[in-house]
Amino acid sequence: MPELQNFDFNREELNKYIDKLNIPKVLIIGDMGIDEMIYGDTERISREAPVLILRHANTNIILGQAANAAHNLATINGGKVSAIGLYGNDYYGPMLLEAFKKAGINTDFMVQDESRTTTVKSRISGASFHSVSQQIVRIDRVDAKPIKKEIEDKIIENIEKAVALHDAVILSDYNIGLLTDRIIEVAINCANKHNKIIVADVQKDMQRYKGVYALTPNQPDSEKAVGYFIRDEKTLNNAGADILDITKAKVLLLTRGGDGMAVFEHGKKEHTDVPVFNKTDVFDVTGAGDTVVASFTLALAAGAPPKYAAIIGNIAASIVIRSFGCATTTIDEIKQSLNKMNMQNYTIKV
Q1: Annotated active-site positions, please?
Q2: What are phi and psi of 200, to 5 degrees?
Q3: How buried is 131 (Cβ within 10 angstroms: 0-12 exposed, 13-18 middle, 19+ buried)?
Q4: How many CB atoms lie within 10 A of CB 187?
Q5: Which residues contact residue 342 at a Cβ distance below 8 angstroms, ignoring those fewer than 6 apart?
Q6: 320 closest CA partner among 349, 293, 348, 347
Q7: Are the C-beta atoms of 295 and 335 separated by less than 8 Å?
Q8: Would you tell me how many other CB atoms lie within 10 Å of the CB of residue 159?
């Protein structure tokens, strides 16, 4: 393995790519859902059972799962986003569509499946007078059974209409059943036919995504894919090469938690290590991966080299982890964060 050297990048050039993040139009296909955040104040212990009684304070409806990635895209590129996913004929279906519309996301290609429930994760949090709000329980309404062929046909019809209208495509797989083998194949073929960037944010079965331009898995899922642990630079290099070989992707952005990111490019022996930015202000990492894939894809579609796109994704993630729950960021915040950073404190290596 060649000796590691600092990756020299130009801050002015990086700012130029950030300025272009609002240009690309992105189609996101995946498992859409809602995060229902229910807050209350603790009153007393119930006489019926040894449980807390909360006096309801407020409820927030937040876009979750693949819809959170769509929301991140929309806040960065000014709403040039279309979503393809499912919603049920139930209480939460209209809430999901309304949340999309409030975020400026196009729902023309969404499909209703009356046989399924809308995916909802309800988090109930409580606080006493002298404490901050803490999550007490989470209730998931998730239907992960295989989708019916007629629903699959509708989704494919919408993919074939929508891909040509956008500059990039994201496949966001939360293992809830939308991304069937056939849908994945059609999306990849359509994107490649129209010369669109296509990025897969995938947790398992990476071989199903053969032919995408880029993948953005985390380290534990990458280790499962290759069948061994990443313990050092050698095993990291091997894992990157193996995943690129399995998927035939051009780029792999491997997110490593506290160890930052590693960027691999097809045909290059060296990879780029990008450290974690803003490590001291971490509050909640929920949804940070969606922020990474959104900003990374926008940067690629705006013409940024993969290394620069990864740095932009890393800066964006460093912003949202300062907030509780699924958060989003903007171009102005990304630029402000970059320009406040003393890059001499970080070592970016290839």
Answers
A1: 290
A2: -110, 125
A3: exposed
A4: 29
A5: none
A6: 293
A7: no
A8: 20
Measured CA angle at 89 (ends 141, 99), to 5 deg: 70
Asked whether 165 and 149 are in contact (CB, 8 A), the reply is no
DSSP 8-class letter at 209: G
Q: Which two tokens stand for residue 17?
A: 């790519």
Q: Note the pLDDT of residue 322.
A: 54
Predicted confidence (pLDDT) at residue 323 exceeds the cutoff of 90: no
Q: What span, in angstroms and rounded, lies between the C-alpha atoms of 222 and 23? A: 31
Give the gyration radius of the chain's Cα atoms.
Answer: 21
Q: Where are the beta strands (DSSP E) in 106-237?
A: 111-112, 120-127, 134-141, 168-172, 197-201, 214-215
Tokens representing residue 135 in the block: 């999550």
pTM of the predicted structure, to 2 decimals? 0.90
Q: How many other CB atoms are found less than 10 A from the CB of residue 140?
A: 10
Written as six digits, the tokens of 327 are 């958060």
Please state, as a whole number, how many other Cβ atoms lie within 10 Å of the Cβ of residue 319: 22
Structure-token pair, residue 204: 């398992």
d(CA 329, CA 319): 7
Could you tell me which of 310, 205, 204, 210 has the C-alpha nearest to residue 262?
310
Which pair of structure tokens corresponds to residue 176?
């809830």
- Rounded CA-CA distance 324/42 in Å is 20
Cα 156 to chain centroid, rounded: 22
The token pair at 166 is: 């956008």
Q: Letter for the amino acid at 82?
A: S
CB contact at 8 A, 170 and 24? no
181 Cβ contact list (under 8 Å, min separation 6): 208
Using CA atoms, how far apart are residues 184 and 208, in angstroms rounded to an integer?
Answer: 8
Which residue type sits at 81?
Answer: V
Tens digit of pLDDT for each residue in 95-129?
999 999 999 999 999 999 999 999 999 999 998 87
